[in-house]
Design goal:
- The chain has four helices and five strands, in the order E-H-H-H-E-E-E-E-H.
- The chain is α+β, with helices and mostly antiparallel strands and 174 residues long.
- A five-stranded antiparallel β-sheet has the order 1-3-4-5-2, with helices on one face.
- The C terminus is likely disordered.
Length: 174
């Protein structure tokens, strides 16, 4: 849902983003972030340690929060600071809903309070500072003037009516 938004204003609410928590998402996120703790991929180990199932690691959550912000602010958005805290775990079979509200705006930089909640409560809370650089205008080339040579397409009629110029060769000189 990448959009180009106008300047952010304090109080602006970002649209909610629902993320289905699948076993694949949990395991792939852990592997991608090189977090090989067994509680993120081995359900039996997670149960032995007191969890009902595997659960999402903080690095995956951090990436999803970053995606939420950049999807909203657009492709020029640059994350400057992500400060999050985990709460209730994200288990497979649940849904996390991310929401956000702009808390501060200074020039081209905004701070957004983010909450990600699931059926157990708040999974993640925190703030993200994002800069959306103002695009630099691209100079437009000046239009060609009448004195500039004009290119024309050759048509069969124009080609037939044009006398052919040939270079003189030593054999043709007599």
């Amino acid at each position: 849902m990448t959009t180009e938004v106008g300047p952010a204003r304090v109080g602006d609410a970002l649209p909610p983003l629902e993320i289905e928590i699948t076993r694949t998402l949990v395991v792939a996120g852990a592997i991608a972030s090189r977090d090989y703790q067994d509680v993120h991929h081995d359900a039996e180990s997670a149960r032995q340690k007191g969890s009902p199932d595997i659960f999402m690691n903080i690095l995956t959550t951090n990436g999803l929060v970053g995606r939420y912000i950049t999807d909203y602010f657009g492709p020029r958005a640059v994350l400057r600071r992500v400060a999050i805290r985990l709460g209730a775990p994200n288990h497979p079979g649940d849904t996390m809903v991310l929401t956000g509200v702009v808390e501060d705006v200074r020039g081209d930089t905004a701070t957004v309070r983010v909450v990600g909640a699931n059926s157990l409560g708040k999974h993640v809370t925190g703030t993200v500072t994002v800069t959306v650089p103002v695009p630099v205008p691209v100079p437009v080339p000046r239009a060609a003037t009448d004195s500039a040579p004009q290119a024309t397409a050759a048509t069969p009629e124009a080609t037939a009516a044009t006398p052919q110029t040939t270079a003189a060769t030593p054999e043709s000189r007599s």
